[in-house]
């Protein structure tokens, strides 16, 4: 199948690691021109060096900084002349006791995973309108559909799904589709890096980080394993492809069977 992504200009936030990095690799494979943003500049440089093509623009951007986002989008437009696809991916997650979950953490997560994706969509819309074509995908989560016990994360990912549905209505008249990908647990540094979800889970289970990660898969995921980052990236690429352009306002589970709702 021809995804029609050759020479499309694709912005990916949080592209230095995990799912964002896998998206960069998959879009590069489709011949797209990449514009990669992350707070981790060294990680971005490593991703760029690993990609087999040279149409890769990278910029250190903290997506919680409105001015930095605006400058980044302007730089991308200057670099390539147009912008076609936005992958809203930068994010994080934190487990914690619901009764004492810190308000400050909730606020920071909202800045990163709620306001930033909206900001990026608003910044890209004028370019999509100019093209007469555009495509947006947000990496939300299946925990936006059923609770996973991660208070801020679950609430914000649910809001992301609704934000994409709202923008899908708004953008449809000018030929822009807007969808969400809803991964279950994915094998990325978000689980495996020190202090991240694996360690947070270990503090609850009393097992090691790796044992806790394995235990979670066996007891919670029907397919008994985490998704690969590539499996999530493949879905994002497909949703922003030409063959999927008539699909808009949906939230696709890529979760090994975890979500049991009818949509
Ligand atoms: P990751 O930690 O491997 O990558 C996240 C990236 O976001 C990092 O490169 C990080 O530097 C970047 N980032 C963080 N804050 C930023 C900021 N303020 N500005 C710019 N970049 C910033 O995590 P991942 O697993 O690849 O997660 C990517 C997305 O997928 C997140 O939105 C996450 O919530 C979502 N998700 C992950 C899983 C999972 O199990 N890994 C499941 C469902 C959804």
Architecture overview:
By secondary structure, the protein is of the alpha/beta class. The chain has 2 domains: 203 residues, NAD(P)-binding Rossmann-like Domain (Rossmann fold, 3-Layer(aba) Sandwich), CATH 3.40.50; 40 residues, no CATH class. 47% of the residues lie in helices and 14% in strands. It is built from 9 helices and 7 strands. The protein has a 7-stranded parallel sheet with strand order 3-2-1-4-5-6-7, with helices on both faces. Helix 4 runs parallel beside helix 5. The longest helix is centred in the middle third of the chain and has 29 residues. The chain is globular and about 55 Å long. The mean pLDDT is 97. It binds nicotinamide-adenine-dinucleotide. Nicotinamide-adenine-dinucleotide binds next to helix 1, helix 4 and helix 6. The site of nicotinamide-adenine-dinucleotide has 31 residues, from helix 1, helix 4 and helix 6.
């Amino acid at each position: 199948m021809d995804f029609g992504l050759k020479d499309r200009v694709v912005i990916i936030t949080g592209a230095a690691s995990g799912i964002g990095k896998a998206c960069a690799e998959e879009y590069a494979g489709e011949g797209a021109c990449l514009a990669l943003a992350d707070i981790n500049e060294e990680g971005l440089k490593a991703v760029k060096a690993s990609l087999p093509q040279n149409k890769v623009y990278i910029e250190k951007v903290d997506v919680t900084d409105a001015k930095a986002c605006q400058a980044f989008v302007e730089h991308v437009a200057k670099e390539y002349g147009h912008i076609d696809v936005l992958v809203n991916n930068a994010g994080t997650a934190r487990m914690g006791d619901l009764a004492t979950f810190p308000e400050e953490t909730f606020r920071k997560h909202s800045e990163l995973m709620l306001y930033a994706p909206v900001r990026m969509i608003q910044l890209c819309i004028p370019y999509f309108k100019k093209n007469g074509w555009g495509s947006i995908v947000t990496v939300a989560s299946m925990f936006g559909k059923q609770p996973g016990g991660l208070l801020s994360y679950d609430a914000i990912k649910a809001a992301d799904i609704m934000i994409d549905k709202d923008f899908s209505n708004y953008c449809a008249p000018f030929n822009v589709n807007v969808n969400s990908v809803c991964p279950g647990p994915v094998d990325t540094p978000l689980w495996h890096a020190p202090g991240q979800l694996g360690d947070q889970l270990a503090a609850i289970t009393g097992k090691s980080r790796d044992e806790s990660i394995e235990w979670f898969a066996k007891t919670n995921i029907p397919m008994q394993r985490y998704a690969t980052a590539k499996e999530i990236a493949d879905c994002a690429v497909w949703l922003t492809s030409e063959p999927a352009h008539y699909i808009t306002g949906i939230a696709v589970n890529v979760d090994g069977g975890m979500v049991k709702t009818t949509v």
